[in-house]
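Weekly structure sync - notes
Attendees: PM, LS, DV (DV joined late)
Agenda: review two folding runs queued last week.

Item 1: First target. Sequence and structure tokens pasted below for the record.
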Amino acid sequence: MAQTTILGRIGQLMRANINSMLDSAEDPERMLDQLVRDFTNNIAEAEEAVAQTVGNLRLLEEDQREAQSALSDWGSKAQAAARKADEARASGTDADATRFDELAKIAIRRQISFETQTKTFETQIAQQTELTDSLKDGLNKLRAKREELVQKRDELVSRAKMASAQRQVQEAVRDVSVMDPTSELNRFEERVRREEAMARGMSEVAASSLEEEFASLEDADTEAEVESRLSQLRSGAGAGAGTGS
């Protein structure tokens, strides 16, 4: 009964759609841990059931060997009794012949009984062997499935840790983007550029003023030269007028 129950649980576990269960689970890692525990517990029970069925099988095989030995032994006794009965009849001792015939019958009845036992043991051994093979097969499948679950759990845990690390990096990048220190640098650079532009503007203004001053000096010198030459012309014109008179 216990072996049948464990076989039923093995079948349920093997038919379970693990991927579907993972998709619908709120906490896949915890669900996988529980599944690993379930498989581990059922593996332990299956191992115990296999050991029990193998033990029962060996007992049945021993009983069958004993029954076969007894069958052979009682067959030999029946033959011996029948031979003695024939010898007694041949010697004319009917009473002994009758007694040995009865002993032969008793031996034959025991022989038939052990024949029945032997056939019963053969049937039981076949059933127990089938059950043992089924449990061994289920046990091996459980072990393989458990290894698969452990690998899937380890992979899932690793992926979860990587995803968490990536999310933390992305959050850090997002925070840096929101509080980007380069924006302050950009504003400072813009202010420096404006200061530089102002300095260049002032330099150009200063240069323009100097040029105007030098230009005004040159204009003054030119005007002075004009006045001087004009005076010379006037002086020469006056002298010419006096000479004519």
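Item 2: Second target, run right after the first with the same settings.
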Amino acid sequence: MKVNIPKQTTDTTFLAKRWKRFALVIALFAVGVVFFLILNVALGSINIPLTDTVKTIFKVQDNTTYQDIIWQIRLPRALGALLSGAALAVSGLLLQVFFRNPIVGPHILGISSGATFAVALAMMGSYLIGMTAVNPITLSLASFIGAMVVMVIVIAVASKVRDIITLLVIGLMTGYVASALSSFLIAFAQSENVFRFVIWTMGSFSGITWSEVYILAGGGVVLMLGSYLMAKPLNAFLLGENYARSMGVNIKLFRYLVIFLSCALAAIVTAFAGPVAFVGLAVPHLARLALGTSDNRILIPTSILAGAGITLLCDLMARMLFSPVELPVSATTALFGAPLVIFFLIKGKTTI
């Protein structure tokens, strides 16, 4: 005899399976973050046993041989990579939802280029007025202003241009203009003053200090929490402005908040690590594919974990592939991100 299952029971079963999948994916990404964090601290020019690494991190033992290496060099760098990857992933996700386009990210729209120009101005301009160093807060503020200026330009154009391809091209051109202005600064600066900036533009988490980790943690966590609190308006916006407005979303305020959050997240990372490409573009796609949903209530925390884990892996590859030579971190993130985005485009998995 055929048994008819009530619709509510079927829906409940489906929801239970879906939430089990969400929990499993989030748990796997969380384990990956912890695993790659420990590997980043343990591996290097001097390999530290994993047991000693874990005990030293959690201060179970005070190993004088490894303590300074772990606490003064490797752990700040690993935490910087973790926080930066999480921030870039959320920044990319916000922009993709805002433009309802899967190939938008801070790097493609020129936000990173704008932040780079502002940092170049802060770094090399400071030498012109006699300053020998620029503190992290100044760099972070300059990076944010540069990113904001570029994003405001792109948004102003977006209000007049409906074709998304045209908008992306304009974003790219704005980025090229910012890059050209940075090149002008380099051309007129003294060679010794350019060296630090050139190294910075290659993208690296080396040399990150605890003070910079505190800024990344304080600013990044607040901004990511703000992004998560906007999950419901983001979900409504995915269905169109009219639907979002009918659900009580203040569209004008929503636009300002998304611009602010995405720019600030990208800017704070660019200030300390330089331009890091493809994390903000590729990670949201990976999170959507793993979860099988575009619900930002689940997608944002998953993107945070995925971005953190992947950036830790890419930083480890940058240090270890050709050791003792260290690759720019943007090289390894591009090696990971570019093939992934191409795969999504070919397979048609780039929907929001």
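Discussion on item 2: The domain at 76-347 is CATH 1.10.3470.10 (ABC transporter involved in vitamin B12 uptake, BtuC).
Action: LS to circulate a short write-up before next sync.
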